[in-house]
Amino acid sequence: MTASEAAVQNALDALRKRLPPSAGAELTAATAAFERFKWTNVEIVCLSRRNSNVRSLALSLGRKRTVTAECDDHLRALDEALSKHEFSATR
Q1: Single pTM value for the model
Q2: Residue 46 in contact with residue 38, Cβ under 8 Å?
């Protein structure tokens, strides 16, 4: 995206040098439209990242609950297995 933005900016600069002063209004409008586009793109990326972070957190928390439940099951099974064995003191 950065390379594309630079290419557009270079094209606008080249036009500014080559166009007659009478085309200034159109060039100003094109530059303003490009600035609005860049700002909108920044907002979209920001919102997208925020949404991705929310999804990532939700997935992580969901996975944590699953892993915790699996660990609890294993601990319960280990506790049951140990409770079936008798330990006698050797002294």
Answers
A1: 0.54
A2: no
Cα 65 to its chain centre, rounded Å, is: 23
Q: How far apart are CA 9 and CA 90, in angstroms?
A: 85
Residue indicated by tokens 């140990």: 82
Classify each residue of 19-55 as buried b or exposed e, where b means 16 or more C-beta atoms within 10 Å of its C-beta.
eeeeeeeeeeebbeeeeeeeeeeeeeeeeeeeeeeee
Would you write out the chain's pLDDT as a tens digit for each of its 91 residues?
A: 789 999 999 999 999 899 898 988 999 999 999 999 999 999 998 888 887 877 787 778 788 888 889 999 999 999 998 888 776 667 6
| Extents of the domains making up the chain | 2-84
